[in-house]
């Protein structure tokens, strides 16, 4: 699966129980990357998350992915870029929201790849993957109201802002978020 806009092309590679995916998860677990999410997780919690990501595969359940720059993307390398083209992670999963079953999405793009449109291109790709499931009509994202970059990704990827909401993340902590929604297919 690949796509992009403004010349940015990404591939979404399914998350695997591999050293490559686990190392990516460790890289996005930095204080810089998790400042809007309650901070880094312990190694133990990270291993649980990695297994959960690898096991998220059933029909309609959702899927986690590595974001990989396609071969047509600019060959720029930044600090922290391992050279394998892995730019971050993204996925979608089921959740109950306001009495309705929907998909939720979330992403993390490594600092050396930020500001290049990669997250928005990946969000459009993950929306296509979620729509192909034909399970839930809506895909939601809940970035913190204080995180302009993630809110910008939602806007650029075609989501509609429904308003602010209280959202529990991590478990036991409430945060003020924006509720962004993308319709995966038109009503019948």
Automatic annotation (TrEMBL):
It comes from the Bacteria. GO terms for molecular function: protein-N-terminal-alanine acetyltransferase activity. SUPFAM superfamilies: Acyl-CoA N-acyltransferases (Nat). Keywords: Acyltransferase, Transferase. GO terms for cellular component: cytoplasm. Residues 8-180 form the N-acetyltransferase domain. InterPro entries: Acyl_CoA_acyltransferase, GNAT_dom, N-acetyltransferase. Belongs to the acetyltransferase family. RimJ subfamily. PANTHER family: [RIBOSOMAL PROTEIN US5]-ALANINE N-ACETYLTRANSFERASE (PTHR43792:SF8), GNAT FAMILY, PUTATIVE (AFU_ORTHOLOGUE AFUA_3G00765)-RELATED-RELATED (PTHR43792). This is GNAT family N-acetyltransferase. It comes from Streptomyces antioxidans. The lineage of its organism: Bacteria, Bacillati, Actinomycetota, Actinomycetes, Kitasatosporales.
């Amino acid at each position: 699966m690949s796509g992009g806009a403004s010349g940015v092309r990404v591939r979404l590679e399914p998350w695997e129980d591999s050293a490559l995916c686990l190392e990516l998860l460790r890289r996005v677990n930095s204080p810089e990357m998790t400042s809007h999410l309650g901070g880094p997780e312990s190694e133990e919690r990270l291993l649980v998350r990695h297994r959960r990501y690898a096991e998220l595969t059933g029909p309609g359940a959702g899927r986690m992915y590595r974001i990989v720059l396609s071969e047509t993307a600019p060959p720029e390398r930044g600090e922290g870029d391992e050279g394998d083209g892995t730019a971050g992670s993204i996925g979608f999963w089921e959740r109950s929201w306001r009495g309705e079953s929907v998909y939720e999405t979330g992403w993390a793009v490594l600092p050396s790849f930020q500001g290049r449109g990669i997250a928005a291109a990946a969000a459009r790709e993950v929306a296509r993957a979620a729509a192909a499931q034909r399970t839930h009509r809506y895909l939601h994202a809940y970035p913190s109201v204080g995180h302009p970059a993630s809110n910008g990704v939602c806007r650029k990827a075609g989501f509609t802002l429904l308003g602010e909401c209280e959202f529990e993340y991590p478990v036991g902590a409430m945060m003020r978020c924006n509720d962004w929604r993308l319709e995966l297919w038109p009503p019948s």
